[in-house]
Amino acid sequence: SLEETKELVIKFCSENKEAVSRISFKRMRSKWASCTGKKLLTFNKDLRFLPANLIKYIVFHEITHFKEKKHNAIFWNLISKKFKDYKSKEKDLFIYWFLVQRKIRDENKK
Using CB atoms within 10 A as the burial measure, which of 15, 69, 97, 104 is most buried? Predict the structure, then answer.
């Protein structure tokens, strides 16, 4: 749920001594989430179709961008401290993206 996602943001921010400016939710056409340099987090409303473990990963991934903006070795090292299986999670998210898009498309045809 949206509330559970917000709670995860607060939890991970606290654990990482970070602060978020704003959390928002909207339909996004090409990604699960994004963040800005001003620490504004936006999550795709379609997260609701994902398993909890992937939502946790996405939230942590975005908060990690507060420390490192780019997907470089530093970033992936930070990610791997909490999610050793991050490569598997990235693959799962790629697969889920297409499954969720298909589900939404099929529901819109009804």
Answer: 97
